Amino acid sequence: MRSKARAGEHSVLTIGDAKLGGEHFALIAGPCTVESRDQTLATAQVVKDAGATLLRGGAYKPRTSPYAFHGLGEAGLRILAEAKAATGLPVVTELMDVRDLGAILEVADVIQIGARNMQNYSLLTEVGRTRRPVMIKRGLSSTIDELLMAAEYVLKEGNERVILCERGIRTFETAYRFTLDLAAVAVLKRLTHLPVVVDPSHAAGRRELVEPLALAAAAAGADGVMVEVHPAPDEAICDGPQALACEDLAALAARLEQVVAITGKRIATAVV
Ligand code: PEP
Ligand code: MN
115 CA to middle of ligand 1, Å? Predict the structure, then answer.
């Protein structure tokens, strides 16, 4: 069977009032985890004020320890819906279990398939049967070919609105959380028409590395970056060390805009 990846083409997705791909660079920002209404609504306002494209935030969280906080679930989705209504920002949120698909579809403008589920083929097939944009994060130890095959599972079902996300891979290096593979961006852009975004937060694991990696991703031709932001990073329940403080997001957006410009793109704002 032939692959549905079209080399040499670049697709543009419409997500709510925003566009992603082509000349439209997406700044996706928000908390790792929806922890509370106040934390999420405050962050969403900062994300909007920074001119971001999409709001991120997890209601269902994949955690290494089964004893850790796994998200607010449906209550978290309701908070995301409120943040979306308040800001007009389209929402990206993770689906971990197909039993939650109905609830996620009520809120998500983009369904995130996390790195740990990149090869969950039944989950990929189910989101492929929807027509909602799907962001697939590269598995911790997955090859580019495996990422492309994960995308094929969604495309095969007729859902053409797929976004690929490079978020760092496991290597021998321990100086940061994962190794951000920016060559993957250049390679994926050649192999497929699908937009490619980069998550520097999970790759870095440390907030001081997020900006340089985000700028490098933009320079490498990424169609967007996704960063974690928190009003009080030191108090975050999950991924605090890599979260930007809310007051740092606007500065990142301004520097990003400059790098994005040299690649012939602009940060796409959802709210006109
Ligand atoms: C996330 O985006 O919060 C997340 C859990 O990412 P990943 O699946 O890349 O680890
Ligand atoms: Mn996280």
Answer: 6
